[in-house]
Predict the structure.
Amino acid sequence: MARVVVYGVGAIGGVVAAALSTSGSDVAGIARGAQLQAIRDGGLRLLSPDTDTTAHFACVGAPSEIDWREDDLILLCMKSQDTLGALEQLRAAGVENQHIFCLQNGVTNERFALRRFPNVHGATVMLPGTFLKPGEVVSHSSPRYGMLDIGQFPRSHNAADETLAKAMEAANIAVFVQEDVMASKYGKLLMNLGNITQAALGSGVGQGELPALLRAEGEAVLDAAGIAWSDVGKDDPRRKKFMQIKDVDGVPRAGGSTAQSLLRGAASLETEYLNGEIVLLGRLHGVPTPVNAAMLRVATRLVREAAKPGQTTLADLMAEITPAS
Ligand SMILES: NC(=O)C1=CN([C@@H]2O[C@H](COP(=O)(O)OP(=O)(O)OC[C@H]3O[C@@H](n4cnc5c(N)ncnc54)[C@H](OP(=O)(O)O)[C@@H]3O)[C@@H](O)[C@H]2O)C=CC1
Ligand SMILES: CC(C)(CO)C(=O)C(=O)O
């Protein structure tokens, strides 16, 4: 069985690494900071509505510390703004033909990777992961930890997808190998346009007409660009079977991945690759995107002011929207 190298052991990478490791896969993690230290000291605790387990797997601080094998499967699990740096480190460490899977939101990571490596796969991540405390990750999903659509980039699928799917299935993560994984990832992108508004306003706070405005711009640019997308949202029947959101004792869901970045005081947000993708496509195809452009400015401000979720009001967000995009 191929080794799985999880690059970026945060919410998603952490749940995946711990689940794979406890189900018997050979796993190596690449982490940094307090998370690396905590995993080395005591393993990684994985909590879910149904489980509480601690996984012990090899974890290093950089790709150069790994003795690479030809059949390693590499999972990119960092935020999109960290992908380029990570790819450079992989290249410097001698990675060449290994299969690289982008378990990331947004649609840019695959292109970044394919510029440098020949075997790239997309993965749509439907997994409510939380990472707020070094040494501990949480999935609020039951009965599976989450679901993935995977496939080769730009399309098709091959034996590497099947190998990863088998390992993930054994690790209680549902996997669907797709012919056109990017259609699923564009559908997920439309959902992620609300990451920044939730991060600003706080989880569970009313967002008025903002979600509909953001999504309408998103759908309009995808339409103008001729990009196909499939709906992986709340009505996706797979969610009911595999991914019901439930409570985890003592760990409230802290909001989505962008909100968690703010809570952890991160120096950057992924917004440029989410709402920013829509703004870019709008500019390329002549579709105004003033609402998504406004949320990009909001993201910059939240980082500059080290704001926490809930410190911004809906009126603040609406005031940011100007007719020009
Ligand atoms: N969390 C969720 O529920 C979901 C997230 N996603 C997507 O999954 C992807 C990962 O998100 P998420 O897991 O939340 O992100 P996190 O920020 O929780 O985890 C990413 C981890 O990667 C680390 N990292 C980044 N660059 C490097 C590097 N060069 N070397 C070592 N470690 C590195 C980060 O360290 P540091 O903290 O120091 O930056 C962090 O620990 C994103 O694209 C996100 O949008 C998709 C669906 C749901
Ligand atoms: C859809 C959502 C918000 C689910 O967690 C997500 O993809 C994220 O957190 O980035």
Summary: The two ends are 50 Å apart (CA to CA). The chain has two domains: 4-182, 185-320. The mean pLDDT is 97. The pocket of ketopantoate (ligand 2) is lined by residues 105, 128, 191-192, 195, 256-257 (CB under 6 Å).
